[in-house]
Amino acid sequence: MLSLKNLIDSCIRPDVRAMHAYAVQDSSGMVKLDAMENPHRLPPALQQELGQRLGALALNRYPDGRVNDLRQALARYAAMPEGFELMLGNGSDEIISLLALACAVAPSSANGFRKARVLAPVPGFVMYAMSAQLQGLDFHGVALTEDFELDEVAMLSAIKAHQPAITYLAYPNNPTANLWNDAVIERIIEAAGNQGGLVVIDEAYQPFASKSYIDRLARHEHVLLLRTLSKFGLAGIRLGYLMGRSALIAEIDKVRPPYNVSVLNYDCALFALEHQEVFAAQAHDLRAQRALLFAELAKLPGVQAYPSEANMLLLRVPDAQKTFEEMRLRKVLVKNVANMHPLLSNCLRLTVGTADENQYMLTALRHSL
User: What dotted CATH number matches 21-36+277-368?
Assistant: First the structure.
């Protein structure tokens, strides 16, 4: 019988063994400002109403046609164009993985088929690269400019060279929190389409942004719009959705596992959409807190805060690791992204919290610099 190490070496892919698992920081007893979560909970009356509703669900049955009610409700909420369809995922992470699975091979005039390629600006959301690797696709990251804008020349050159099956554009981007130039985005979309590839506009932070791509979505056959309810205020239920032309969504939907969204997930989401004014008010509060927080950060010597269209702020400090550790000792948990990409040297990412959380964080930051 093989030893455990030999068993792992013989059964687990070498590239998986070389990977690091996605790390979730221990937040026990902390002011948790590391994961871009909505800090507001449901009001007590709605908590009670939701609890009674979930308690009455038939948990002994597989999800039923009510999941289609959620799809229709999300389509109305997002103002999805005519001729488009919507696919649900267990968070947007699952949808990103399913896209990689659906596009695992691509036509090649030379040898029939080749591995598909995924392309995205970097620094960006780590799951674009991770999902590509796990599905055996090649990932190509194109560095942003020093001020975190799209490098149009480099992006267009990379699209021509690699002919990606999927190009991701986060709008706004994580962790830089900015919206990119619309004209540059359109030229990248056109170039990717001319090469026969898909473009996924990832609007995870749409509730906090000043604009959305939804109004331009109908212009294109090859553009998909990805959203999540995590930033809406439901990170705990893990629900994402993908919008695109009906025929295109129908093909991608073939690789979705059956019953991938539980009855608890979709009834929670339906409940939230029925009370969307509560979540809209929470987003409004967080946008206001973001402005106040940005103004306070700008006053700190040695700190450079970057403008944000999301519920997070990126800032550069003299020593990110020292500041991160000092803040953690003061029971404030943020995200140290300094090692994520050279452009993020000495950068921290802060989630926008409640007014009290933000003041506590600022105090901890002042003492930690």
Answer: 3.90.1150.10
